[in-house]
Amino acid sequence: MTNFDRLSPEEKKKAEERIRIIYVTWDELCTNHESAYLSAPIVTEIAYRYILDAKRIKIFHPTEIENINEYKIAGYLSYWICKLRPVQIVKHVTRFTKIQSLLNEELAFHISISRINLERSINNEPKIDFFKHDDEKRKKFINDLFYSMKYRLTTGDTLSQIYKYTEVF
Predict the structure, then answer these.
(1) How far apart are CA 110 and CA 47, in angstroms?
(2) Which of the chain's ends, N or C, has fewer CB atoms near its CB within 10 Å?
(3) pLDDT tens digits for 82-132?
(4) From residue 152, how far is each of 10, 106, 119 by CA, in Å?
(5) Which of 37, 55, 52, 43 is nearest to 18 (CA)?
(6) Residue 117 CA to chain centroid, in angstroms?
(7) What b-and-e string marks burial along 25-55, b requiring 16 or more CB atoms within 10 Å of the CB?
(8) Residue 92 CB burial class (10 angstroms; 0-12, 13-18, ≥19)
(9) Are 156 and 79 contacting, i.e. CB atoms less than 8 angstroms apart?
(10) Every domain of the chain and the residues it spans
(11) pTM here?
(12) CA-CA distance, 37 to 110, in Å (whole number)?
């Protein structure tokens, strides 16, 4: 159960930013809002659990970590999106991936790449342009990643490492 009263004002602000990122990315991805929607209580719970994870990392690593990096942010957000599944399907959806049952994983991936690219642009580094090239290697990687995110045991740390090495593509 979400209890935002346990969060500091700074943590509440970060949770609100994460909620906004989820909704903005969903609006960019979804072509038909009558076919699927985001569950507001689940999106709120995702942001809350993400903040608790970030808080836990800082408690257990107080001298090493002041702020978690963009890959951890992406990994932990992805983890909670895939675990709590905020995308609720009403009827068939026309979208980017062919498998409708992987909408939550697709949302998590897009949010993660966007978050990583935001940090890269702040640091004047080139963005990861993962969707520009339509080659078989990338398609296979995305399909395998989405499948693993849905059906295999993945952690926020595992996903953060995967995102860190997406630059290889």
Answers:
(1) 16
(2) N
(3) 999 999 887 765 555 455 678 899 999 999 998 898 888 888 888 877 766
(4) 33, 15, 28
(5) 43
(6) 13
(7) bbeebbeeeebbebeeebbbbbbbbbbbbbe
(8) exposed
(9) yes
(10) 4-168
(11) 0.86
(12) 16
What are the Cα distances from residue 131, in Å, to 9, 96, 128, 139? 36, 10, 9, 10
Give residue for tokens 């990315």.
25
Whats the size of the chain, residue-wise? 169
Contacts 24+ apart (CB under 8 A), 141-150: 141/169, 142/97, 142/109, 145/105, 145/109, 146/97, 146/99, 146/102, 146/105, 146/106, 146/109, 147/102, 149/78, 149/82, 149/105, 149/108, 149/109, 150/82, 150/101, 150/102, 150/104, 150/105
Burial of 80 (0-12, 13-18, 19+ CB in 10 A): buried
Q: List, for residues 11-52, the tens digit of each pLDDT value.
A: 999 999 999 999 999 988 877 666 788 999 999 999 999 999
Please give the distance of CA 53 from its chain centroid, rounded to a whole number: 14
> Structure tokens of 142?
């995305």
